[in-house]
Amino acid sequence: MKEKDGKEIMNKKKIKIGVIGCGAVAQTMHLPYLSELDCFEIEALCDISQKLLRKVGARYNVRKLFVDFHDLVKKEDIEAVLVSSRQHFEPVIAALQSGKHVLVEKPMCFSLQEAEKIIEASQRNNVKLMVAYNRRFDPGFEYAQRKMANMKKPTFIRVLDIIGSNKVILNDMYDLYQFDDVPAETKHELQIKQDRGIEEAVGRVPNNVRLAYFWVVALGIHDINALQVSFGNPRRIISSQIWNQGLYTTSIIDYGEDTQCVLTIGSTNITKRVGMEIVVFGVDEIIDVKFPLAWCSKGVPATIRTSKMENGNLVEEKVLAFYETSYKRQLKHFYDCIINDRQPLTGAVEASKDIQVAIKIIEAYKKTSGIK
Predict the structure, then answer these.
(1) Please, are residues 48 and 68 in contact by the beta-carbon 8 Å criterion?
(2) Which domain holds residue 149?
(3) Domain assignment of residue 243, yes or no
(4) Which residues contact 240 (CB under 8 A, 6 or more apart)?
(5) Average per-residue pLDDT in the chain?
(6) CB 17 within 8 A of CB 81
(7) What angle do the packed helices 207-218 and 348-369 form, to 10 degrees?
(8) Global pTM?
(9) How confident is the model at residue 321 (pLDDT cuts 50, 70, 90)?
(10) Are residue 169 and residue 291 in the same domain, yes or no?
(11) pLDDT of residue 5
C-alpha cells in the first residue's frame, strides 16, 4: 500500500463511511472521490437541509439519510465519518464518542478547549482523528517542502492568502444543489455556537476582531499549518494588524534563527481573485510556491519556482506538480491510517498547535490596540 500518493491500495477492505454536511466542498470534492475510490462505501449522509439531503442521496444512491448527526453516528455499520458541515466540533465529538474514525474539514474547531476535548475523545476511544489540510497532500507542496528543508538558512518568508467569493467561483464551475429550507432558528443556533467557540478562543472582542479570527482560522489555518510543518512552531508573533472591518489581517511572525515571516490573510471584492502563495528567501536561493484554488485543483498544478545564482548568472527553474488531486490523496491517507493503524499526517495535536498560533495572532493585535 502506498500511504499518500496512493497509486495502488492493496488489501481493499471497504470502509463504510458517513458524511455529515452535503454542501459545496462535499459535492465538489469529498463525495465524488469517495464514490470513485473502491476502498470506501458511502453508507449514510447527513445535512440540516432536507431537500439537499434527498437530492444528494439520490445522486449517490445513498438511502440512509439523517438530519441529526447524532442518528448517523449511532449506526454500528458505519466505521468512519467525514465532517464537512458548517459546525465541526459537536459532530466530531459525537462521532469519536461513538467509536468512529473521523476526517474533519479544517478548521478542526475554534478554541483550544474544544481541541483538548477532541484529542481526549480520540485517544480514549482509540480511533483516528485526521484534519483535512488538503494542501499538505498537494504534490507541489510536498516538492516545495523538500526544497525548503534543504534550503541554506531561510531568512524571510512571505505568505499571501487572498480569496474572492467562493459562491461566484463555484457557480461558474459546478452545478451545485442549493436549497433554502433550513429554518431560521437552526441557522441562528449554529451562529451562536460558532460565536461561543470564537469567544472561548479570543474573549469578548469587537466584531471586526471576531471576523478577523474567523478568517484566520477558516482560511489562514492552511498557511499556519504549512509554516508549522516547514519551519516549526513560531517563537512569537511580533505584531498583527487588522483592517477593512476585519476582512484583512497581517502578522509578522518570528520563527527563530533570524527567520521572520509576513503572513497576510484576506477576502477581496474581486470575486475571482483566488490563490495562495508562499515565497521563501534564503541566503542563496528563493523558492516561490503558488497554489490553485482548491475548488479547481483537479488537473491544475501548484507552481514552484526556484531562483539562485550560479557562476554570476541568475538561474530560474519552474516545476509544475500534477499527479492526483490533494483531496483524493488525503482520502487514501485516511484509509491507510485506519487499515494499517497509522497516525495521520495531519492529526488533532498538530491542528491544536495551529489554533494556538491563530489565537496568538489575535492576542498580538489586542495587545497593541488596547483590547483586553
Answers:
(1) no
(2) 139-323+354-369
(3) yes
(4) 249, 250, 251, 252, 361, 362, 364, 365, 368
(5) 91
(6) yes
(7) 150
(8) 0.92
(9) confident
(10) yes
(11) 46
